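Dear support,

I submitted the protein below through the web form. The confirmation email said the job was done, but the results page showed an empty box. After a refresh the structure appeared. I'm attaching both so you can tell me whether what I see now is the final result or a partial one.
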Amino acid sequence: MTRELNWPTIRLLIVKDWQLFQKQLAAYLLAAFVALAFLGLAKPWAFYIGSLLLIIILVAVACFAISTSLLTERKEQTLAFVMSLPVSPLDFTVAKLVGNLATFLVPFVIIGLCTALVIFSTPLPNGLMVLTTLVFAHILLAYCVSLAVAMRIESEGWNTFVMIASMVMINPFLMAIGQLHGVSGVARGDAITWSGPVLAILSAQLVLSLSCLAFAAWWNGRKPAFY
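What the results page shows now:
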């Protein structure tokens, strides 16, 4: 018989995570707005500084969401408190998964929308949205991979390695997609064209991201006990 989820307690755990980290997330958003201000100048030097700073901020938000919500809690051994609540491993898994996603996706979506607004409202070429979408999707995939590993493996060393490795891969990713005419050619023009290779890459990124989240939910939720 499948146990019903304890949604009231799950909501409390999610709200607890959000309240603990909302001030730090506001600081990340403020830094992102500074980066977008550089992008909006539409100058080569400002674009380089702004885009580099924006990528660093997105990576920092992803690592912050995982390290504070999962790794730090393990180090501080707060699981004993959670075990005293009327929650099952599945309840805890859902709370941590949803809470972590909220902590990351809220600033991620806001920054993404503001980036699109800057591109469309400044002299920057509108075609830059294609490259921007692929970069954001890559960071989302790297985050989902790191989150799935963090929920499965308790070793802080391995989790740190996976987070750094997945985020560092953005450099070779940018070099690879920069060779595609459907990206490099479109990014310099005002027409937004979604070519077949671009849609294939984007689809693969989204499918892999969802697969990582599904695996994390299934693997951790099927445990009969916390240990």
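Response: this is the final, complete result; the empty box was a page-load delay. Residues 7-221 form one domain.
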